[in-house]
Specification:
Blueprint lengths: L21 E3 L3 H5 L13 E6 L10 E6 L5 E8 L4 E9 L4 H15 L10 H10 L14 H9 L23 H12 L8 E5 L5 E5 L13 H7 L10 E5 L4 E5 L22 H8 L5 H20 L36 H14 L6 H11 L3 H4 L7 E2 L4 E4 L11 E4 L2 H11 L32 H5 L11 H13 L10 H13 L4 H8 L4 H7 L5 H12 L11
Parallel strand pairs: 1-2
Antiparallel strand pairs: 2-3, 3-4, 4-5, 6-7, 8-9, 10-11, 11-12
Helix pairs in contact: 9-10, 9-14, 10-12, 10-15, 15-16
């Protein structure tokens, strides 16, 4: 007999396969009671506790994980997003207490859940975006530094929160200014002041200017320890040089040495204004009463330097525009300038022998100075370049003089000068100066400079630091030039004969062109010019006799011209 099957399903209890989490009250005191002694880990690394909260609470899904090894208690929020269970780490206890966690969860619920309590945004992604994306600060605004602060930073003083600079950087090119340029720029920026007496400039091996602080014994001021210390000793307005009045006891007269008409930017009201607010009119007003046209132009260049420096540092914002002082935007009333009589002057061939004879005659009175001028005319070196030549640069084996790029004006490449028979004679004459009475120190092995100084004393004789410094070399030729010019005029019988050290390089280049068929492409290797155009524009200065020869040769075309009969 067939039995009818029952259509009803069998009712059995569902077996729990997962251990149900323990619950604890959402209180700090309850969390404190969770310890190793009260927790059974078994083989687990951590045990999770759910919080006893209502289903509609913003704390729904919040648990605390207690780790066996570290005993760390971590708040973790479990939530359902895009059909997937995710976990959000709120923080660790007791760094975060229940009150703070409740506030965080409430904020998450308001920003990441809809009205029904469903998660519409993933808080883990929000956290990742916060680390990855930040609000871009408004970099278009300048930082608000004054001109005086820019001057301090440009010299090398520290500005809080900013990177320290070496000081006196070039405007557009890499590298730093030479010592002469550093000295001038500092005078215009912060000189005409006692602070100028506390710093001196020299050059390193690359030809870049380096500073050294020194004391002023007359003012009883110690050497500054830094640029910041220098500007602290002499803040704006303190130490400005004034008219110097002194009494001459021998002549029983009072003399006044007037202070310079020029003044430093640092000691002015203009220096206290913002660099970002500086306009061409401000600079025009500043330079109006300065001493000369050249000084006014130099001050404009200094303002350009300060503006460019501030821009390179990012202190003018990301969009400061072009420098407001470029392209003659600063109006300077032109003054009638005296024409430089030496601009187009050279020592012509007829005067060359006279120049040499007079130099030889003055050598005893002016050792090294006379030879310096002879050396310049045979090598086409500028005076500042020739003064820096060391004995070690002479290579007798290869018969050349190596000129490192740190000496050269442009500092781009090392240069070489060929030692001709005439130059060899001159170099030996220079090295023999050490045989003269009182100049024996020049023969010392550690005296580096080709042109030495006569400002030597017994105290400095064994001072290695002094002998290696620029103070051990020839300083200048101010006294020698008038003597040589007067002697040349007396021997030639020409009271208007012109001579200056600046004509020597022009003389060599002009003679070289005449001897090399006017080939600038050949002469540039002797003058060490990078381009032929500069050589032809500034240095080819033929004498009036040479120009007369050119004119007469051209005029032969018009030889048919005759004078009319009466």
């Amino acid at each position: 007999m067939n039995k009818k099957l029952d259509t009803k399903l069998e009712l059995n209890d569902i077996k729990q396969t997962r251990t149900k989490r323990k619950t604890v009250p959402f209180r700090d005191s309850a969390i404190d009671k969770i310890t190793k002694t009260t927790t059974e880990f078994g083989a687990k690394k951590y045990v999770a506790y759910n919080f006893d909260v209502s289903k509609g609470s913003s704390l729904k899904g919040l648990m605390i994980k207690f780790y066996k090894q570290t005993e760390k208690k971590s708040f973790v929020l479990s939530f359902w997003f895009n059909n997937r269970n995710e976990y959000y780490i709120v923080g660790t206890y007791p760094n975060l207490r229940c009150k703070e966690v409740e506030k965080i969860c409430l904020d998450l619920a308001s920003t990441h859940q809809d009205d029904r309590g469903l998660w519409i945004k993933n808080p883990n992604k929000t956290r990742a975006d916060e680390k990855r994306l930040v609000d871009k600060p408004d970099t278009t605004k300048p930082k608000g530094y004054s001109i005086n602060e820019i001057i301090e930073a440009y010299c090398g003083a520290e500005i809080p929160g900013e990177e320290i600079e070496r000081g006196f950087s070039k405007d557009r090119k890499d590298g730093y200014r030479a010592s002469k340029s550093c000295r001038s720029w500092f005078r215009y920026m912060a000189g005409y002041n006692h602070r100028q007496s506390l710093v001196e400039f020299d050059e390193d091996e690359d030809g870049y200017g380096i500073h050294k602080f020194k004391p002023n014994k007359h003012l009883r001021v110690n050497a500054p320890t830094s640029w910041r210390d220098l500007f602290r000793k002499y803040p704006p307005g303190k130490g400005i040089l004034k008219d110097r009045v002194y009494w001459n006891r021998r002549k029983k007269k009072t003399y006044t040495i007037p202070a310079s008409k020029n003044r430093s930017i640092y000691d002015s009201d203009l220096g206290k204004s913002l660099i970002s607010d500086l306009k061409p009119g401000d600079v025009e007003s500043w330079v109006k009463n300065l001493s000369s046209m050249e000084v006014k132009k130099e001050y404009v260049r200094v303002f350009i330097t300060l503006w460019i420096f501030a821009r390179k540092k990012g202190w003018l914002g990301t969009n400061p525009g072009d420098c407001p002082f470029f392209d003659n935007k600063v109006f300077i009333k032109k003054e009638r300038q005296k024409e430089d009589p030496y601009k187009n002057t050279i020592v012509n061939q007829s005067e060359f022998k006279l120049f040499w004879e007079c130099s030889e005659e003055l050598s005893e009175q002016f050792p090294w100075k006379a030879e310096l001028h002879q050396f310049m005319i045979l090598t086409a070196l500028r005076k500042q370049e020739a003064l820096k030549v060391k004995k070690s640069y002479i290579n007798w084996k290869k018969r050349i003089i190596d000129i490192p790029r740190g000496i050269e004006k442009n500092r781009k490449h090392d240069q070489t000068i060929v030692i001709t028979p005439e130059l060899e004679v001159l170099i030996h004459n220079i090295l023999d100066i050490g045989n003269r009475p009182g100049l024996e120190f020049y023969k010392m092995k550690d005296h580096n400079w080709l042109f030495g100084t006569r400002k030597w004393s017994a105290q400095k004789y064994f001072n290695k630091e002094f002998k290696n410094s620029s103070k051990a070399r020839l300083g200048g030729d101010e006294n020698y030039v008038p003597e040589l010019r007067a002697l040349m005029r007396a021997k030639s019988g020409d009271p208007e004969l012109l001579y200056s050290s600046k004509v020597l390089r022009k003389t060599y280049i002009t003679l070289s062109k005449q001897r090399n068929d006017g080939r600038s492409d050949k002469v540039k290797y002797l003058s060490r010019h990078s381009s032929e155009q500069i050589l032809e524009q500034h240095y080819d200065k033929p004498s009036i006799d040479t120009i007369r020869g050119y004119a007469e040769k051209t005029s032969e075309v018009f030889s048919f011209i005759q004078r009319r009969s009466a």
